Q: What sequence folds into this?
């Protein structure tokens, strides 16, 4: 009887210990949660040293929800430098720093400064954070399409070769609606990975402001679902137009 009682007692103790461990893990996970009302901004820096600052409440909430789903592990990480670092600046001027390993085959791990151990993200939340963080990389990649000025005029010519603009203007637009269509198409274009070797462009387009000219090659025809643009001075890098922008532009080339 004493032996049975002892075994029962050991079983109860085991359950208590496991419960404490699980509670401890949950408490550690809860420590990653941020009081959204207290956040001023999040500064994200990639492994190349490029950084951006997030102040949008929706994006801050995405970040917070993603890290809150992570599972805590008490083991200390001993791996390469992180892919991204995020510094959460609170309104009281205190900071919380997170380091993330989420690019490529990295397993969606992160650490929080001042804590031992690390956290593992679910694949879905790893993808959410990667999309948020890479918006900075994508912005850096599309700097050569950046247009910060009011465009007053657009000229179009049949393209003759990469790297130069045909001086024989075919069309010219000064109306606001058409200018917005072209500017929006370029701003929303997405970079195509790698160095491209393309056929001669269909058109050369020049966007003209009071102070500058922005010249691009454009590939688009009647059968195009998604056109492509290139900065005239960056002819190995192409950018895919959205389907919506392609459809809008095609109305200007009929």
A:
């Amino acid at each position: 009887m004493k032996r049975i009682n002892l075994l029962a007692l050991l079983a109860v103790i085991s359950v208590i210990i496991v419960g404490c461990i699980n509670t401890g893990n949950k408490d550690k996970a809860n420590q990653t949660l941020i009081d959204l009302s207290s956040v001023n901004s999040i500064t994200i820096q990639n492994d190349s040293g490029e950084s951006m600052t997030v102040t949008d409440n929706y994006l801050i909430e995405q970040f917070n929800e993603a890290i809150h789903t992570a599972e805590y592990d008490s083991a200390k990480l001993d791996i390469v430098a992180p892919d991204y670092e995020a510094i959460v600046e609170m309104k009281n001027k205190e900071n919380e720093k997170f380091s993330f390993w989420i690019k490529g085959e990295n397993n969606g791990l992160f650490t929080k400064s001042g804590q031992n151990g690390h956290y593992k993200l679910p694949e879905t939340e790893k993808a959410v954070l990667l999309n948020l963080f890479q918006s900075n990389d994508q912005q850096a990649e599309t700097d050569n399409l950046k247009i910060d000025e009011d465009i007053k005029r657009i000229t179009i010519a049949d393209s003759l070769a990469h790297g130069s603009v045909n001086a024989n203007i075919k069309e010219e637009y000064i109306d606001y609606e058409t200018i917005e269509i072209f500017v929006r198409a370029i701003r929303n274009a997405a970079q195509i990975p790698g160095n491209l070797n393309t056929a001669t462009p269909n058109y050369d387009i020049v966007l003209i402001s009071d102070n500058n000219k922005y010249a691009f090659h454009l590939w688009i025809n009647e059968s195009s679902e998604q056109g492509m643009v290139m900065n005239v001075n960056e002819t190995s890098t192409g950018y895919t137009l959205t389907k919506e922008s392609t459809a809008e532009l095609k109305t200007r080339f009929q």
